[in-house]
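Morning. Coffee machine broken again, so started the prediction first thing and wrote up yesterday's gels while waiting. Chain of 180 residues, entered below exactly as on the submission form.
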Amino acid sequence: MAERRTKEERVASINARQSITVAVTAAGAAISGAFIQASTNSSKVQHVSQRWLTVTGARPLNEELENASVRLIAIVTTDETSRAIKFSYPPGVLWSQVGSNIAGGSYPLPVGAKEYNVMFEGYYKSGDSISTFKLANRNGQPIAMAGSGTTGDQLYKLYLVDPSQTHLKDPVLDVIFRVE
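Came back before lunch.
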């Protein structure tokens, strides 16, 4: 014979089931909320791409450098740090003859910077001479990066440093580069 429960026992049984249902529903809501929050935050993460300094050539601006060989150093700082990063150009060789046939080179830049300050310095020598002459420019060239585009070709003028004087002479070399 089936046992009859009292009214209090039936109410207690319903309340226990309701408590379990509420607990399971709350746990599911908490898990769903955490998942939605995580996916919302991950969609706010910005994709940061690698940028490159690409040097495409060096063009002489006077007759003295038309048959000269050069060795350049690219010096890059960012808007986030004053630490300079240096790259040697042209890649893979100590000296390269100035002109349109000079090898290009690409160098990785710090990720996430919104602006780069690019400078070049270097040395040149004429023909088979062992004497080298310093090339410099005291001014950096700020390159502001917007979005994922490239800067297009930029020119950076280098001057012959006269060791007997404190000033730079006329520009003698254009370095052609871009940030992409």
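The chain is about 20% helix and 40% strand. Going to sketch it on the whiteboard this afternoon.
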